[in-house]
Amino acid sequence: MCGIVGARNDWLMTLGLDPQTAISQATAELAWRGPDGQATEHAGDWWLGCARLAISGPKSRQPVVRRGGRFIGVMNGAITNARTLWRTFLPGAEALAAPPNDAWLPLLAVASKQTEALRTLRGHHAFAVVDTKTGELTFGQDRYGEKPLHCLIARVGEHWQLVAFASTLAALQQLGMPKIDNPRRLAEWFRYGWSVDRPHRFSARLQVTSIPQRGEPFVADTSAKQWCRPATTSSRAPNTTSAGLRERLITSVRHCIDSPSPSGLFLSGGIDSSCLALALGTISESTPAYQFRATGTGSAERKAAEAVALATGLPLRRIDGGPEVLEALPRLTRLAGQPLGDPSILAVHAVAQTAARDGVRIMLGGEGADELLLGYRRYRAIARMPRLRALRPFGSRWSMHKAARYWRATIAANPIRALLAVTPPALAKQVLAPELARRRCWRDAEAMPDLANGIALASRDDDVSNYLPRDLLPKVDVALMAAGIEGRCPYLEAGLESFGRDNTSLGKRALREAFRDELPESVRQLPKIGFSLPLDDWFRGDTALLDVLADPRSRSREHLRPRGLEAAVDRHRRGTTDLGHALYLLLAYELYLRSTEDGQ
Questions:
Q1: Higher model confidence: residue 312 or residue 202?
Q2: How far apart are CA 302 and CA 244, in angstroms?
Q3: Which of 525, 529, 535, 545 is nearest to 588 (CA)?
Q4: Strand order in 38-43's β-sheet?
Q5: Helix (H, G, I), strand (E, B), or coil: what is residue 291?
Q6: Ramachandran angles phi, psi of 151, nearest 5°
Q7: Residue 220 pLDDT more than 70?
Q8: Cα separations in angstroms, 212 against 163, 177, 450, 592
C-alpha cells in the first residue's frame, strides 16, 4: 500500500517547474500514505514517485526499475492473485513465504509484452509502467476503484494528453492541477455527499477525468488523436454460475490475508462482516476483530458481533466513540486534499487508530457486498415503488425520515438518485446559493438510466459506477491510510458479480444461504442498520467543531445564501428538522476551503 505520482517532464517544464523538485514535492504530499520510504525516478519522458507503506516487507522499494533501466513502474495497493501470476513471470516465486513486491508484476507484464495479464489482476491497486525507449506509459486501476488514481489531462498541441497522475488531489496540485470550481459538482456534493466525476474542463487548455474504464489497462499514446488507447488485451469471460459463493469468499479472504503483515477485521455485527469472520474461522485464522459503537446508539450490532466472535474464536476489540471522533476531520481533509462527504469515515478512522496501536497493518471490510449482492433496502423498495410524478408539488421539503425520502423518490424523475440524497430539498432553497439550488439534482429532475434489466439492477449499477468509487471506497482508503493501515475488500475480489444478477437476488439471499448453518441467530434476525453516526444528536450537543459554522468567515461564503447557514443551524438545534448530515457536509466543505486557503 503506497501513494504514487507521475508527470511528464515536458509538462512540468512548460509550467516553469523544475521537474525533479516538483515530483519530489508531490511525493512528499503522499508521505502520510507511505511513511516507510519515499523515492523518485526519471523515466524517459516521465518522472515517477512513490511513498511506500511496507506491507510486503521492509526490503521492498518503489519505484521498481527493470535491469537495464528501460522499464520503470510504480504501484499503489496489492494484487491478491499475485501467487498465480508469479508462476508465469518468475516460476518458483509463488511458493515463497513472501514473494517479491507485487509492483513488479505490471512491469514484467509490460516488459514481456504480455499486457493481457493486466486484465486478470485481482485486488486493489493502481499502477503505472513507463517504457523509457518508446515513451509509452501503461497504467490502470482495479475494477471498482478501491485504490485512487486521479489524472490530469491537458491539451498539448492538437491533442489531449495525460500529463500527470497521483493517488491524491493534494499531490496532483503540485503538478499543475488548477482549482476545481464547478457548480454542478458542488451541488451534487451537497445533495449526495459525492459528485459524478464526469470529464470537467477547467479552461480552454485543461480538464481532469478519471480512468476511462476501471479494470482496463490503458497506454498513453502521444501520437494518437485520442489521449489514450486500450491496451491490447482480451476480456475475461464472466462466471454465470450461482454455485460456490461460500468457497469463493473463503478463497478471497485467504488471498487478502496472504501477507507477512498482521491482519484485522471490521466486525460490525451485520451479515457482511459476520460472513468474513466465518471465513476467517474456517481457515483457522485467529484474526483480531474490531467493533465500533457510537455513543447514543443501540447495542444490537455489538451483541451480534460478540456472538460471531464467540462462534469463530476471533478475539473482539470493542471501541466506543462519541462526538470527539469528529476532531479528526480537519486532518483527514488536509491529507486527502478534498472535502470528505461521508461522516462514517470518522468511525472507520477511530477503529483504524486502535488497530494500528495493536500492530495491525491490513484490515478486511465488507465493502461491496451490498452492491454486488443487492443488499440495500432501497433496492427492494424501489423495485415495488409506484411512479407518481404528477404529485411532485406535494413532496416533503425538509424531512429526512424514511417515509418522506420514499415519497420524494416516488414523485421524482429519477427515484434512484432521489433515494441516494442525504440532505432535504429545502436545504438548497434556504441555505445554498441560487446557482447551486437551480441544479437538476436539487429539483429531483435528473434523467433516468437505462431500465432494460429493471430499476433495482439499474440502481445497483449506479451505485457501482458512482457511490462505491466516489464515496464508500475513498472513505475507507483515506481513513485507513491515515492510520498506516491497508484496507482490503474480499467481496470485491471474490468474483461474486454473477450472484446479484437479477431481482430474485434482492436482500443478499445467496450470501445468507451460503452461510445459513453457521450464522448466529442474532445476526440472521438483525435488520440492516448501516455504518452511520448519530449526527442529529451530536450536533444538538456541545460539539466544538460546529462552532466553525458560527464564524463570520464561514457564513460569508459564496456557495451560501445570506444568513442561510444561521437558519440551518438554528432550525436543527431547535429540533424543527433533523439536519445532522447536512450540517456535517457544510462543516466538511468549510474545513476543505480553509485547508486550501491556509495552505497557500
A1: 312
A2: 29
A3: 545
A4: 38-43, 46-52, 2-8, 159-166, 150-156, 206-209, 200-201
A5: strand
A6: -120, 145
A7: no
A8: 15, 19, 20, 27
Q: What is the 3-state secondary structure (H, E, C) of 82-114?
A: HHHHHHHHCCCHHHCCCCCCCCHHHHHHHHCCC
CA atoms within a 13 Å half-sphere pointing along the CA-CB vector of 330: 11
Beta bridge partners of 424: none
State yes or no: pLDDT of 226 exceeds 80.
no
The CA-atom distances, in angstroms, between 60 and each of 51, 164, 168, 308, 591 are 12, 25, 22, 37, 36
Is the pLDDT assigned to residue 354 strictly greater than 80? yes
DSSP alpha helices (H): ranges in 164-213? 169-173, 183-192
Report pLDDT digits (tens) over 419-474. 999 999 999 999 999 999 999 999 888 889 889 889 999 999 999 989 999 999 99
pLDDT tens digits along 306-348: 999 999 999 999 999 999 999 999 999 999 989 999 999 999 9
Q: What is the mean pLDDT of the chain?
A: 87
Residue 1: the pLDDT is: 64
For residue 502, count CB atoms less than 10 angstroms from its CB and return exposed for 0-12, middle for 13-18, buried for 19 or more: exposed
| Distance of alpha carbon 408 from alpha carbon 405, whole angstroms | 5
End-to-end CA distance of the chain: give it in Å, rounded: 29
Between CA 202 and CA 187 the distance in angstroms is: 17
pLDDT score at 201? 35
Alpha carbons 14 and 16: distance in angstroms, whole number: 5
CA 332-594-431 angle, 5° bins: 100
pTM for the model stands at: 0.90
Strand 71-79's sheet: what is its strand order? 64-65, 71-79, 123-131, 137-141, 218-220, 228-230
CB atoms within 10 A of CB 208: 20
CA 312, CA 483: separation in Å to the nearest integer?
A: 27
Taking the CA of residue 371 as centre, how many other CA atoms within 13 Å lie in the half-sphere pointing to its CB? 21
Three-state SS for 290?
strand
CB 345 within 8 A of CB 247: no
pLDDT digits (tens, 9 = 90+) for 368-400: 999 999 999 999 999 999 988 777 666 668 888
Sign of the CA dihedral 329, 335, 340, 343? negative
DSSP calls for 33-66: T-TT-EEEEEETTEEEEEEE--SS-TT--SSEE-
Residue type, 512: R
| Contact (CB, 8 A) for 126 and 141 | yes
Cell of 150: 486521479
Asked if the 245-374+458-524 domain carries CATH number 3.40.50.620, the reply is: yes
The CATH architecture to which 2-230 belongs is: 4-Layer Sandwich (3.60)
Domain boundaries, the chain: 2-230, 245-374+458-524
What is the per-residue pLDDT for 224?
Answer: 38
